[in-house]
Automatic annotation (TrEMBL):
<dbReference type="InterPro" id="IPR001533">
    <property type="entry name" value="Pterin_deHydtase"/>
</dbReference>
<dbReference type="InterPro" id="IPR036428">
    <property type="entry name" value="PCD_sf"/>
</dbReference>
<keyword id="KW-0456">Lyase</keyword>
<comment type="similarity">
    <text>Belongs to the pterin-4-alpha-carbinolamine dehydratase family.</text>
</comment>
<dbReference type="GO" id="GO:0008124">
    <property type="term" value="F:4-alpha-hydroxytetrahydrobiopterin dehydratase activity"/>
</dbReference>
<dbReference type="Pfam" id="PF01329">
    <property type="entry name" value="Pterin_4a"/>
</dbReference>
<protein>
    <recommendedName>
        <fullName>Putative pterin-4-alpha-carbinolamine dehydratase</fullName>
        <ecNumber>4.2.1.96</ecNumber>
    </recommendedName>
</protein>
<dbReference type="GO" id="GO:0006729">
    <property type="term" value="P:tetrahydrobiopterin biosynthetic process"/>
</dbReference>
Amino acid sequence: MVEALNETERADALDGLPEWDYDEARDAITRQLVFADFVEAFGFMTQVALIAERMNHHPEWTNVWNRVDVLLTTHDAGGLSPRDIELAEAIDAIVGD
């Protein structure tokens, strides 16, 4: 069972994810990504989906044309966990941050 990050761990993790915003109400991190068009956005989502499936850790996300909104939290842990940080880092690597 994965455990939620404590306050210090969360702060340290967020320092390394400058493109992500912390959602205190959900104990989650969010990021909005904008691509050139729908095909590019969908291609990004496909790449993330493959990683998420291997991790057995899936994002909450929406896609409208060229925009993808991502929210990461670990429901089993009741909040932000190392799994979310790992997936956020993988997402950042895909988009080149």
